[in-house]
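Q: I'm writing up a methods section and want to include an example of the input and output format. Could you take the sequence below and give the corresponding predicted structure tokens, formatted cleanly so I can copy it straight into the document?
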Amino acid sequence: MKYDLKVALGADVSHLALDAASAQDAHTIAEQQGFTVLTVKRAGLSFENTFLNQLSKPKFNLMLFSQELLALLESGLSLVESIEALAEKEQQAETKMVLKQVMTALYDGLPLSNALEKIPTVFSPLYVALVRASERTGDMAQALTRHVTYQTQIDAVRKKIISASIYPSLLMIVGGLVVLFLLGYVVPKFSTIYESTGANLPWMSQLLLNWGRLLQEHGQEVLIVSLATLASLIFILSRPQVKAWITGMFWQIPALGETMRIYQLARFYRTLGMLLRGGIPLVTAMSMVSSLLQQLLKSSLEQVISDVREGQPLSAAMVKHGMTTSISIRMLRVGERTGQMGEMMERIGAFYDEEIARKVEWFTKLLEPTLMLLIGLIVGLVVVLMYMPIFELAGNIQ
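A: Here is the clean output for your methods example:
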């Protein structure tokens, strides 16, 4: 269960969200992280808590933190001095509180990885493991460089997907607004005109005009019901179980499912390669990245881990359980022969990213004209149904 805590750290007061079995457990976890707990409330399932609060809640920018810490370390500052400098210049209350927690743990003599581990809501196990591995080798700057490079590449793929979806989304929004304008304003006007004539109308035109009459007489009620339905739909779609079910349905679509699989594998290989290059053992690294995968691939990865522990080569285990393609298996075998598995996995991730970019571009080029055709057909159908009685009247006059 999620709990919303009002906490204080020194003179700073803020809110903290935690997952815990009970309110007492949430209280204990917050105190272990160095906070003074003021109030504990169970986070409700209201639309405001699940959506509006997420929009207004400031988030810790891990990418920016890594870049700034890397710059300070490379300039010659010690780790503690770098964290102090970041905390002093920070203006955002939540970020400043996180940095003060890390600084306090470092003052207590803890290594940076242990300090970050105390704040699991901000620093993921992957990030903590990468820092811990760098502490063994004494190369913190190199570990941060790997993470920054990794996150930059992941963000680049995500931006390509978002950019490709902007134009189709605009088409759908504009087309929807045009249809709403026709149904909400133009159709009611025609409905009034046709009612005054008393003419017999085709049943589809009559259906459309009935809708116009409904909007004209009960527009406010229709708007309230529509907004309530939309809010309920957003709330339902935000549930993890519903998301998992929808994702499973998408995975059943041949072309789309394969693209989603390749996207998951790209993240998997890129992340695994980053961890391996950071000095983390193979089996440990694979266990850590399993959370990035969809449930079906996660089950396959568990079987791969079991086979590797039994002594099978990684490439053979990956092929056996469907975690490769014809290209990646060759690159994996090269990595096994040369001993550069981490670098080779990052290359596999880059190859998959390029394939995803090509598929997204192809899908966008296909989707845009399809959407334009669909919107044109809908708008044209509404217009024809509105004018059909006039066409029939003109035919009767002739």
